[in-house]
Amino acid sequence: MQEFESVLGIKDLTKKFKDFELNIGELEIPKGFATALIGENGAGKTTLLNCLAGTRLDYKGEIKYFGKYVNDERENPENHVRESIGFTAPKGFFLQHWTVRQVGDICELLFAKFSKERFEQLCGEMGILEGNGWKKKVSELSDGNRMKLMLATAFARETKLLLMDEPTSPLDPLMRDKLCNMIREYLEKGQGESSALFSTHNISDMENVTDYCVFLDRGKVVEKGFVEDLKEKYVLIKGEKEDLDGIRSAMFDVTENRYGFEGICLAENLDQLAGVRLSKETPSLFQISVAILRQNASVR
Asked: Per the confidence metrics, is the pTM higher than 0.70?
């Protein structure tokens, strides 16, 4: 397992709601990598990202940014924490009557290292300017274009950390692919100093840009690790249906069909499958994710 320097350090973070509690005992997010936050709806992904972004402050616990700034110091302008973080969210935070041009103008006033030129370039590349172009109001944009607009404002800034809540959910496949390229270019440009953390349900689309994963289930971390380590820890097994009963107890997760079975086995349990005719393959991140989440999922 790789050792890493942390861009975010979380300790004893809790946020209680009427029927839900986010409870993160200890979690480190690696610096210089793209981390995917994966979990069912209601697992606590949005709450966690809002706490990290500073849009929600009514939590208990400690968040350490960039290895030195603690959460209660965020209001100190000398720390430059807010200036160093870009944040996007599905619901957005632009006023509905603002035009695309006004969004750029306001971001230029709010953030010291916002490039109006880069913003305009990104708006053009992502197709936001079709129709009325700069005069188009936020209220007139589709869900996909609103997300593109938020992405344009985030990527037009000089930051050290991107926090993105479900950035791919309203995007078409081509834009999802472009977003992956944008994230990878952002990390490469940062030369190990820039990091990205995003939540996603589109695991297959984002696998090629994901370096590290954190799995949440009902407010708690149930698994984490670099993708390459997870693909060594979990093994994809395929076999004949008549052989399943003898090895079922050794399987981490399994799905049957009329022809046979397919499932995930922990590498440490492979010796329990000895003597059975099976195929062993490296699983995709999607297959690992489904297996991990299905263990305690509310939907089966």
From this structure: yes
